[in-house]
Amino acid sequence: MNADIYFILVTISAVILILGLFIYFFQHKFFFHPEKLPADFKFAYDNLKAEEKTVEPEPGAKINYLHFQVDEPKGAVIYLKGNTKSIKGWGKFAIDFTRLGYEVIMMDYRGFGKSTGKRTVEAMKRDSQFIYNIVKNEFSEEKIVVYGRSLGAGFAARLASKNNPRLLILTSPLYSLLRTVHRYLPFMPAKPFLRYNIPTFQYLKNVRCPIKIIHGSDDRLVPISTAVDLSEINPVLTRLYVILGAGHINIHQFEEYHRVMEEIFEERKVFIDTEKTSLNVNHRSE
Questions:
Q1: Residues 159, 136 contacting (CB under 8 angstroms)
Q2: CATH class for the region spanning 34-266
Q3: Which of 209, 182, 203 lies closest to 193 in space, CA to CA?
């Protein structure tokens, strides 16, 4: 009996170790799906004016980004994209902000598009801060909006926690990569093997600007419960917008998403006289 239990424990431990090593060495293939572009590739978009730029945040690394420009800008949006493809395709989403009068700065992570360098979480943090500093040289922070979608939401939350932008917008954000792994491998103690954890929830605790979270009700990759949990971390500064019927990839194809964006950027302040509302009514009292 004891031998059987010992065999079972050894087998389980061996399976966990093998899975852990697999996660450790191949997680970059799960978390990142880059599209590489030739150096001579020319970016071109309908109804968008984009200037391509490349910077070297540190020796051995080059970050390629696009600066979408508008006449008489109200401010600038730093757009941190998801984990797939390159800014070649993601650049099409700049129109959601340029139409509202904001310029957009969108970077490719290391190994994506024309960007080069060894990709690590720490390097990606430094790169995004480097881009933020460039934008801050042109726009005051009260005119900077940080936007992150999917995996990019974690880096956006970190930027907002380390700086003082006007606004943080997270669309379809992950709680953390660790929670994502646990969702698919609930029995797996993945933390020791995870090299790319991005704890969005931790960063939100230190954000001091308004936080807007947009999430699709039918998101199967990152459940809506994730957005609810994130919205409860810094509730005084946070507002959650649920796009009914939207999934993870197609949220921008819902008209309500664009209505929400207009509402967020218009920032219409409404005074509520709480003395003339039911705010302080105790329904259970006599």
A1: no
A2: alpha beta
A3: 182
